[in-house]
Amino acid sequence: MAITLETLADAIARANASMSSLTDVLNAADAKLGDGDTGTMLARLIGTFAAVDVRNAENLGAGFMALAKAGAASTGSSLGTLIITAMMTAGKATTGKTELAWSDLSGLLAAIRYAAMARGKAELGAKTIIDGLDALAGGVEGKTDAASMAAAAEKAMDAILAEFRNRPSAMGRARMFAEKSVGLDDPGMLALAEIVRSLGKNPQHDTASVA
Protein backbone atom coordinates (compact mmCIF):
# COMPACT_ATOMS: atom_id res chain seq x y z
CA MET A 1 0.00 0.00 0.00
CA ALA A 2 1.11 3.58 -0.61
CA ILE A 3 0.19 7.20 0.01
CA THR A 4 -2.46 8.30 -2.48
CA LEU A 5 -4.86 11.19 -2.97
CA GLU A 6 -7.28 9.28 -0.76
CA THR A 7 -4.64 9.19 1.98
CA LEU A 8 -4.06 12.91 1.60
CA ALA A 9 -7.76 13.71 1.75
CA ASP A 10 -8.18 11.54 4.84
CA ALA A 11 -5.22 13.19 6.57
CA ILE A 12 -6.66 16.64 5.94
CA ALA A 13 -10.05 15.57 7.26
CA ARG A 14 -8.46 14.14 10.42
CA ALA A 15 -6.42 17.29 10.99
CA ASN A 16 -9.46 19.49 10.44
CA ALA A 17 -11.54 17.49 12.90
CA SER A 18 -8.79 17.68 15.51
CA MET A 19 -8.77 21.49 15.48
CA SER A 20 -12.06 21.62 17.39
CA SER A 21 -10.14 20.58 20.49
CA LEU A 22 -6.68 21.89 19.58
CA THR A 23 -7.47 25.51 18.73
CA ASP A 24 -7.72 26.72 22.33
CA VAL A 25 -4.79 24.55 23.43
CA LEU A 26 -2.49 26.02 20.79
CA ASN A 27 -3.75 29.58 21.36
CA ALA A 28 -2.96 29.21 25.06
CA ALA A 29 0.54 27.91 24.33
CA ASP A 30 1.18 30.77 21.91
CA ALA A 31 -0.18 33.39 24.32
CA LYS A 32 2.72 32.65 26.66
CA LEU A 33 5.28 33.56 23.98
CA GLY A 34 3.47 35.37 21.17
CA ASP A 35 0.18 36.72 19.91
CA GLY A 36 -1.94 33.84 21.13
CA ASP A 37 -3.43 33.09 17.73
CA THR A 38 -1.56 29.99 16.52
CA GLY A 39 -4.58 27.75 17.05
CA THR A 40 -6.99 30.13 15.35
CA MET A 41 -4.68 30.59 12.37
CA LEU A 42 -4.08 26.86 12.03
CA ALA A 43 -7.79 26.06 12.27
CA ARG A 44 -8.53 28.57 9.51
CA LEU A 45 -5.73 27.25 7.28
CA ILE A 46 -6.60 23.58 7.72
CA GLY A 47 -10.28 24.43 7.22
CA THR A 48 -9.29 25.98 3.90
CA PHE A 49 -7.40 22.81 2.99
CA ALA A 50 -10.44 20.71 3.90
CA ALA A 51 -12.56 22.66 1.44
CA VAL A 52 -10.30 21.55 -1.44
CA ASP A 53 -11.44 18.33 -3.10
CA VAL A 54 -8.00 16.78 -3.57
CA ARG A 55 -9.50 13.41 -4.47
CA ASN A 56 -10.31 14.80 -7.91
CA ALA A 57 -6.80 16.13 -8.56
CA GLU A 58 -4.90 14.58 -11.47
CA ASN A 59 -2.14 13.30 -9.19
CA LEU A 60 -0.49 13.83 -5.81
CA GLY A 61 1.59 16.73 -7.05
CA ALA A 62 -1.46 18.54 -8.32
CA GLY A 63 -3.28 17.81 -5.08
CA PHE A 64 -0.55 19.31 -2.92
CA MET A 65 -0.27 22.34 -5.22
CA ALA A 66 -4.03 22.91 -5.02
CA LEU A 67 -3.72 22.96 -1.23
CA ALA A 68 -0.81 25.39 -1.40
CA LYS A 69 -2.72 27.74 -3.69
CA ALA A 70 -5.84 27.71 -1.51
CA GLY A 71 -3.87 28.10 1.69
CA ALA A 72 -1.74 30.97 0.45
CA ALA A 73 -4.86 33.09 0.16
CA SER A 74 -5.94 32.39 3.74
CA THR A 75 -2.84 33.10 5.81
CA GLY A 76 0.00 35.56 6.05
CA SER A 77 1.51 34.30 9.31
CA SER A 78 5.05 33.00 9.51
CA LEU A 79 3.90 29.51 10.55
CA GLY A 80 1.22 29.49 7.87
CA THR A 81 3.81 30.47 5.27
CA LEU A 82 5.98 27.51 6.29
CA ILE A 83 3.01 25.18 5.95
CA ILE A 84 2.33 26.51 2.45
CA THR A 85 6.02 26.00 1.68
CA ALA A 86 5.65 22.41 2.85
CA MET A 87 2.71 21.84 0.52
CA MET A 88 4.57 23.35 -2.42
CA THR A 89 7.65 21.25 -1.70
CA ALA A 90 5.53 18.11 -1.51
CA GLY A 91 3.80 19.11 -4.72
CA LYS A 92 7.06 19.49 -6.62
CA ALA A 93 8.40 16.21 -5.23
CA THR A 94 5.31 14.28 -6.33
CA THR A 95 4.68 15.93 -9.70
CA GLY A 96 2.92 13.44 -11.95
CA LYS A 97 2.84 10.72 -9.28
CA THR A 98 -0.38 8.99 -8.33
CA GLU A 99 1.16 7.44 -5.23
CA LEU A 100 4.15 7.68 -2.92
CA ALA A 101 5.66 4.73 -1.06
CA TRP A 102 5.56 5.05 2.72
CA SER A 103 9.32 4.42 2.70
CA ASP A 104 9.75 7.65 0.71
CA LEU A 105 7.99 9.82 3.30
CA SER A 106 11.13 10.39 5.38
CA GLY A 107 12.93 11.82 2.36
CA LEU A 108 9.97 14.06 1.55
CA LEU A 109 9.87 15.36 5.12
CA ALA A 110 13.60 16.06 4.96
CA ALA A 111 13.05 18.07 1.76
CA ILE A 112 10.27 20.00 3.50
CA ARG A 113 12.59 20.68 6.43
CA TYR A 114 15.25 22.18 4.15
CA ALA A 115 12.69 24.23 2.25
CA ALA A 116 11.24 25.56 5.50
CA MET A 117 14.71 26.43 6.76
CA ALA A 118 15.41 28.42 3.60
CA ARG A 119 12.01 30.14 3.60
CA GLY A 120 12.08 31.02 7.29
CA LYS A 121 15.81 31.76 7.40
CA ALA A 122 16.00 29.42 10.36
CA GLU A 123 18.55 26.96 11.68
CA LEU A 124 18.24 23.73 13.58
CA GLY A 125 18.48 24.10 17.33
CA ALA A 126 16.55 27.38 17.60
CA LYS A 127 13.52 25.64 19.18
CA THR A 128 11.07 25.99 16.30
CA ILE A 129 8.89 23.80 14.11
CA ILE A 130 12.05 23.19 12.04
CA ASP A 131 13.42 21.03 14.85
CA GLY A 132 10.12 19.19 14.91
CA LEU A 133 10.30 18.50 11.18
CA ASP A 134 13.88 17.28 11.57
CA ALA A 135 12.87 14.87 14.32
CA LEU A 136 9.88 13.68 12.32
CA ALA A 137 11.94 12.99 9.19
CA GLY A 138 14.48 11.01 11.18
CA GLY A 139 11.91 9.23 13.29
CA VAL A 140 9.98 7.70 10.41
CA GLU A 141 13.00 6.71 8.36
CA GLY A 142 12.87 3.06 7.40
CA LYS A 143 9.16 2.66 8.15
CA THR A 144 7.18 1.09 5.34
CA ASP A 145 3.54 1.13 6.43
CA ALA A 146 1.03 3.49 7.99
CA ALA A 147 0.80 1.84 11.40
CA SER A 148 4.55 1.75 12.09
CA MET A 149 4.89 5.23 10.60
CA ALA A 150 2.26 6.64 12.97
CA ALA A 151 3.83 5.05 16.04
CA ALA A 152 7.33 6.21 15.12
CA ALA A 153 6.12 9.73 14.30
CA GLU A 154 4.35 10.16 17.63
CA LYS A 155 7.38 8.83 19.52
CA ALA A 156 9.67 11.23 17.65
CA MET A 157 7.47 14.23 18.40
CA ASP A 158 7.17 13.37 22.10
CA ALA A 159 10.95 13.08 22.28
CA ILE A 160 11.73 16.35 20.50
CA LEU A 161 9.26 18.31 22.64
CA ALA A 162 10.87 16.91 25.77
CA GLU A 163 14.36 17.63 24.43
CA PHE A 164 13.66 21.30 23.71
CA ARG A 165 11.16 22.16 26.43
CA ASN A 166 13.81 23.41 28.85
CA ARG A 167 15.80 25.30 26.23
CA PRO A 168 15.32 29.00 25.45
CA SER A 169 13.69 30.03 22.18
CA ALA A 170 16.12 31.63 19.73
CA MET A 171 13.91 32.45 16.76
CA GLY A 172 10.85 34.57 15.98
CA ARG A 173 8.81 36.54 18.50
CA ALA A 174 9.51 33.92 21.18
CA ARG A 175 13.20 34.86 21.22
CA MET A 176 12.21 38.11 22.91
CA PHE A 177 11.01 36.01 25.83
CA ALA A 178 14.01 33.66 25.85
CA GLU A 179 14.17 33.20 29.62
CA LYS A 180 10.41 32.92 29.90
CA SER A 181 10.35 30.29 27.15
CA VAL A 182 12.41 27.85 29.23
CA GLY A 183 10.04 25.16 30.42
CA LEU A 184 7.49 25.89 27.67
CA ASP A 185 6.86 24.15 24.36
CA ASP A 186 7.39 26.11 21.17
CA PRO A 187 3.87 26.70 19.77
CA GLY A 188 4.82 25.69 16.22
CA MET A 189 6.55 22.51 17.35
CA LEU A 190 3.63 21.71 19.63
CA ALA A 191 1.19 22.27 16.77
CA LEU A 192 3.12 19.85 14.57
CA ALA A 193 3.22 17.26 17.34
CA GLU A 194 -0.51 17.48 18.03
CA ILE A 195 -1.43 17.26 14.35
CA VAL A 196 0.87 14.24 13.96
CA ARG A 197 -0.83 12.68 16.97
CA SER A 198 -4.30 13.26 15.52
CA LEU A 199 -3.32 11.79 12.16
CA GLY A 200 -1.94 8.65 13.74
CA LYS A 201 -5.12 7.65 15.54
CA ASN A 202 -6.31 4.24 14.36
CA PRO A 203 -4.14 4.27 11.22
CA GLN A 204 -5.06 1.96 8.37
CA HIS A 205 -2.99 0.97 5.38
CA ASP A 206 -3.99 4.00 3.36
CA THR A 207 -5.02 6.44 6.08
CA ALA A 208 -2.35 8.15 8.11
CA SER A 209 -0.18 11.23 8.24
CA VAL A 210 1.44 12.38 5.02
CA ALA A 211 3.02 15.57 6.30
Which structural class do the helices and strands define? mainly alpha
Strand content: under 5%
Main sheet: which strands, in order across?
1-2
Task: Please bin the fraction of helical residues.
Answer: 55-70%
Cα Rg? 16 Å
SSE run: EHHHHEHHHHH
Shape annotation: globular
SS summary, helix count: 9
Terminal Cα span: 17 Å
Multimeric state: single chain
User: In this structure, how is the largest beta sheet organized?
Assistant: 2 strands, antiparallel
- Overall pLDDT, averaged? 91
Number of strands: 2
Would you identify the regions where 5 or more consecutive residues have pLDDT less than 50? 203-211
Description:
The protein is mainly alpha-helical. 63% of the residues lie in helices and 2% in strands. The protein is built from 9 helices and 2 strands; from the N terminus they run E-H-H-H-H-E-H-H-H-H-H. The chain has helices at 5-31, 38-50, 60-72, 78-93, 105-120, 129-139, 146-165, 178-181, 187-199; strands at residues 2-3, 100-101. Strands 1-2 form a two-stranded antiparallel sheet. The longest helix has 27 residues, at 5-31. The chain is globular and about 50 Å long. The model is unreliable at 203-211 (pLDDT under 50).
Give a quick rundown of the structure.
The chain is an all-alpha fold. Helices cover 63% and strands 2% of the residues.
Please write out the topology:
Elements: E1 2-3, H1 5-31, H2 38-50, H3 60-72, H4 78-93, E2 100-101, H5 105-120, H6 129-139, H7 146-165, H8 178-181, H9 187-199
Antiparallel strand pairs: 1-2
Helix pairs in contact: 1-2, 1-9, 2-3, 3-4, 4-5, 5-6, 6-7, 6-9, 7-9
